[in-house]
Amino acid sequence: GIVPRHRPPPSDMGRGLTLLLLPLALLAAPVQAEGGGPATEEVKIEVLHLPEACSPKSKKGDLLNAHYDGFLASDGSKFYCSRTQNEGHPKWFVLGVGQVIKGLDIAMMNMCPGEKRKVIIPPSLAYGQQGYAQGKIPPNATLIFEIELYAVNKGPRSVEAFNQIDKDSDKKLSELEISQYLKEEFARDGKKRHPSVHDEILADIFKKNDHDGDGFISAKEYNVYQHDEL
């Protein structure tokens, strides 16, 4: 299981964990910048606060819990604030797998719980030439984020998580095993859900993960985040 140092309320915990097998859009589905932009463009990182005991450091595939504010570099206006969304719960997301814009995936590597950073992200690593109208982000916008990281956990697609679901240890996940796992997760956060929700999520998991269609999710199929151990 995933036990953060600061236990968030159960509902938030459940949300973080169901993310386990489901992608989650944070600021929005990131837009691939066309042409990649000039090679000189990179994320500028300023560390505002570093705790004395700085570990563990975040790495690709870890599950992070963070608050952040987003500003437009052009006029300093705030376009996003996680504290005003979702009842103010910090956001959970998996690092380095494209659940957030590329610039944030880069900006939050090697960061430890309690650390605060201010980062400047060029358009090619954010929303590119399209911008993102719904998010009030104009085309070719440089973005500034102030980030506070709360927790760094073993990522959902880790070997530990796979072995936990794979009850018979045959190195593949059956529909029954994942169904059982979802039941346990849902029981853990105690929310009332219609039974159809369980079936929909299960079907979705297989549609997205069972690439060869054999009715099982193999270690390789499950392990989309390319950890080395499996």
UniProtKB/TrEMBL annotation:
Residues 153-188, 197-230 form the EF-hand domain. The gene is Fkbp7. GO terms for molecular function: calcium ion binding; peptidyl-prolyl cis-trans isomerase activity. Residues 61-153 form the PPIase FKBP-type domain. This is peptidylprolyl isomerase. Keywords: Calcium, Endoplasmic reticulum, Glycoprotein, Isomerase, Metal-binding, Repeat, Rotamase, Signal. It comes from Jacana jacana. The keyword ATP-binding does not apply. Its EC number is 5.2.1.8.
